[in-house]
Design goal:
The protein is of the alpha/beta class and about 230 residues long. Helices cover about 40% and strands about 20% of the residues.
Length: about 230
Amino acid sequence: MLSIVIPTLNEENYLPFLLKSLREQKFHGDYELIVSDAGSEDGTVKIAESFGVKIAKGGFPGRGKNEGAKLAIGDLILFVDADVILPEDFLEKNLKEFQSRKLGVASFYLQSKNKIHNFLFHILFNFPSRITEKILPQAMNVILIKKDIHQRIGGFNEEIKLGEELDYIRRGKFFGNFGVLKSVKVFASARRYQQDGWFKTWSKYFLCQIYMFFWGPVKSDIFKYKFNHYKRKT
């Protein structure tokens, strides 16, 4: 069984589209939906309840994912950010690839219906992810992992301020093969890059990678990362 964990905070403009895309999946397996909410003040929780999903009390990204995972009953966990949309064949094809490649943890390529954003996702994330797949795994909006590996590594490090996904998969790969699933890409929102600027945002993540390489996980607020500060839907 697959458990899908969605951390949220004031995501009423995005969550319905993700949940609708999950409801429309051409998937023959069993799955459950868990929304881990960090105290939304809008209609996020009501929307989640209207879709009949489990609700967990979340927090800053790492904690939200961990709290959601505590309710998971599946042997696989898919962590999904609320501002993505999954194509209707996403689960079916990617899970088959995950199993056929005998992976323990995986990330995904990103795409956008906007041609410019799609090009930038390819250059700034997809291409680097492909060339560093075997030596320095990359991950962003969506991660698939075996539940036993999640438990063995103690979940996400909740002290990390930026790059908790990178730390998570890089610890996970020591207990199961890592791979980037290529079957179906994720439709990702460009809201952070549009609001904060593409160059500024990717420079911050690039510097985060350098910091992690030399000094380990980013547990200080050196990069001044803001969680859920978006002003408009893009």
